[in-house]
Specification:
Blueprint: E1 5-9, H1 15-24, E2 28-32, H2 35-38, E3 44-47, H3 52-61, H4 65-73, E4 78-81, H5 83-88, E5 89-93, H6 107-113, H7 118-128, E6 143-148, E7 159-164, H8 182-185, E8 190-195, E9 200-204, E10 209-214, E11 217-223, E12 226-229, H9 240-247
Parallel strand pairs: 1-2, 1-3, 3-4, 4-12, 5-6
Antiparallel strand pairs: 6-9, 7-8, 10-11, 11-12
Helix pairs in contact: 6-7
């Protein structure tokens, strides 16, 4: 059986660390730097941390935004970490410090850009309430969550933690993160979490599954083929997040 062929967005940010981890897991890695790279066969996609504003501009300038968006919408297993989470999020809230102008993406824009099913529309209306000025930097908008840039603080606010990774088992029963039973919670592995200028997930649509919680808030989520983390799994030795991506 051939090794999985994983594309790692390599226009800016911590792509080298992701690529090294995937190669250590036996994957064939394609560093995506231009539009032609996206035309190759891919079994998965990783969107790394970095500067989401710079990544969004480069994706558009290089003609990679729409081809990658189409692949994600068609079901390509995708992992977004930190800035990658921001790129995936349907709704992005600025830090409010003037560094990123605007506020949240308008609900009407959210529905038009994404998959207009009932969950997404309901999420857009409930999460946004009154419509504010749209953030001028818009990514793929395929993951129905609201995130706040730098929601866990700036560089000096970086920190580490640990928490259980909670997934639905083959029987479809959720165990661990939302279950107070010590017996079922013990089935979920404890993984390390490294936060660096991390975005904060402040709202999720009903069908979004919480994979990791910290202090009662989601810090890793899954929606269909997409996994997104506030933290940086590439900076820790644990492979659980990567194995979950490869299992898709």
């Amino acid at each position: 059986m051939s090794s999985p062929r994983i594309g790692v967005l390599a226009v800016q940010g911590a792509f080298a660390e992701h690529a090294a981890r995937l190669r250590n897991l036996g994957c064939s890695v394609v560093e995506l730097r231009q539009q032609d790279d996206v035309r190759q066969h891919l079994d998965g996609l990783v969107l790394p941390g970095g500067e989401s504003t710079a990544q969004t501009k480069l994706l558009r300038d290089l003609g990679m935004m729409e081809p990658l968006r189409q692949l994600i919408q068609e079901g390509l297993p995708t992992l977004g970490t930190c800035a990658g989470l921001i790129l995936l999020a349907e709704n992005v809230e600025s830090t409010g410090d003037g560094r990123v102008p605007g506020g949240t993406v308008a609900a009407a824009d959210l529905v038009d850009a994404g998959e207009p099913d009932g969950d997404t529309i309901g999420f857009a209306c409930s999460a946004l309430g009154d419509q504010r000025r749209p953030d001028p930097v818009v990514g793929f908008r395929t993951l129905p969550v609201t995130v706040r840039r730098n929601g866990y603080g700036r560089q000096l606010g970086s920190f580490t933690a640990t928490a259980p990774l909670h997934v639905k088992h083959a029987d479809g029963v959720s165990r661990g993160a939302n279950n107070t039973s010590e017996e079922t919670a013990a089935e979920d592995p404890i993984i390390p979490l490294t936060f660096i200028r991390a975005p904060r997930i402040i709202a999720t649509a009903p069908k979004v599954e919480t994979l990791v919680q910290l202090n009662g808030e989601p810090v890793a989520v899954r929606y269909r083929n997409q996994i997104a983390c506030c933290f940086h799994p590439e900076l820790d030795a644990d492979n659980a997040i990567y194995q979950l991506l490869l299992s898709l």
